[in-house]
Amino acid sequence: MSxxxxxxxxxxxxxxxxxxxxxxxxxPPATTTNHYLVGDDRAxxxxxxxxxxxxxxALQQWVAQARAGKIQLVAQLLTHHHxxxxxxxxxxxxxxxxxxxxxxxxxxxLADRLQVDQWIDDGAVVATNRDGSPWRALHxxxxxxxxxxxxxxxxxxxxxxxxxxxxGTILIDPSDGHMGLYLASLQRMADLQPRTLAPAHGPVQHxxxxxxxxxxxxxxxxxxxxxxxxxxTPQQPADLLPAAYADVPRTTWPLAxxxxxxxxxxxxxxxxAEATATGWRRL
Length: 283
What we know:
Layout: E1 12-14, E2 17-23, E3 32-38, E4 42-46, H1 53-68, E5 72-77, H2 89-95, E6 100-102, H3 104-109, E7 118-119, E8 125-128, E9 134-139, E10 148-152, E11 157-161, H4 179-191, E12 196-199, H5 208-229, H6 237-244, H7 253-269, E13 273-276, E14 279-282
Parallel strand pairs: 4-5, 5-6, 6-7, 11-12
Antiparallel strand pairs: 1-2, 2-3, 3-4, 8-9, 9-10, 10-11, 13-14
């Protein structure tokens, strides 16, 4: 494949950006994680997620085609540590000879499962296009402590991991998520005025700023509903679900309960609620 034939590489989404969805152990309704090639000169493979042998073979072939087009792959980059983003990382390191890059917080969370070869800080150049324009890492915590997005200012493209979704929703889990940081990360990305958002799940989103604003409004409205459901009498988080999540199917309430708990923690940080020995109450 010659340089000019890179236009035939599967999954072209924009200047220096290609997408390959492959099966992963993610949350329904999504069934795949997008693998991205970022940069058409020096490139990174983002979120090597797929654990299956057949899918990994497809990933290997895709990378081989990119290399034949004179793309110099330098590393694989993890947007964060969740299992539906790392399932092929060791395969890619050993078979495709690509070291693992991630934020320091991600490296620490993966320490007992996977070795990260290089820490990536906010603002670091992780890839380049042939016109010399850089792709930079942006630290966008909230969904996970070490969550990274990748920003190409010249074309206003962003690869955003689980900051938003093109299919399904984004869970901010109390175990490793933080609602306040997530809201701030959404605002940071919106302030950049991106043209497109390339999420980990589902198609690339072309109403980028509108989607980011929608996510913020939705989370803030949900939090306001939880605050209204609280009273001076302590209640268990599950007791708040019927009022705060009346608009979602009961089958999703187990996930909703996790998100609700993250909102309660955020309300507590703002001095609007507190946890007591017998439950949560409004202040």
